[in-house]
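Lecture notes, unit on protein representations.

Consider one protein chain, 227 amino acids long.
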Amino acid sequence: MKIKKLLPYTLVFIIAGCLPVWSLHPLYDDKHQIFDKKLLGTFIEDTNDANYIWEFKHADEPNTYQLIFTGIWKQDPNVFKGWFEVHLIKLNNQFFIDLFPKESPWGNIPEDDMSKIKWYWNAFFMLPVHTFAKIEFVDSNLKICLTDDDDFKKIMKEEPNSVKYELFDKMPVLTASTKELQSFVIKYANDERLFSNKKTLIRKTSAADVNNINDSNNLSIKEKVTN
């Protein structure tokens, strides 16, 4: 894959608001992954430019979620989606999610027209890698703190031995084992150099009514997503 040709598109990577920190190994393992129904449902982030819809469903595999991430630009008729496998992890009484692109676009990306990719957001994971975020359930809503590779570089500079990584075309890729990665995340869980991109997602549906959005405005959003 010609990564440099994709880099301009990373400026609009919405899952992290920028390029996230990548990891070769997952954050979850059998000991620390959990399943909580509070994460099931649809959450929406409404910005000046777009609506971003995070729809978490129960996947076929045990203790696994499916995330359909949708971006709907307010001044653009196009709808862009991503499909991710998600695991919920509890470390030191704090919650994290591990995300992995479910369908791989690698090696088959139309460089001239990214919008032709079925799972548009998956393409920004230029390697088959994991990323992770810190989450908090606040009433019925979801607070999510995502990683930013530029902020992570501050840790690399100030504490170069804090975690194992390699540079891939000047971008850091964590190579630490799952156990080492968990220790790193626990240590830096409240450090904005790691979890700097904060969002509050407003719940629109629960697990019970994920397919039955009653609010008329949300119905219009859902109709646009499914068309």
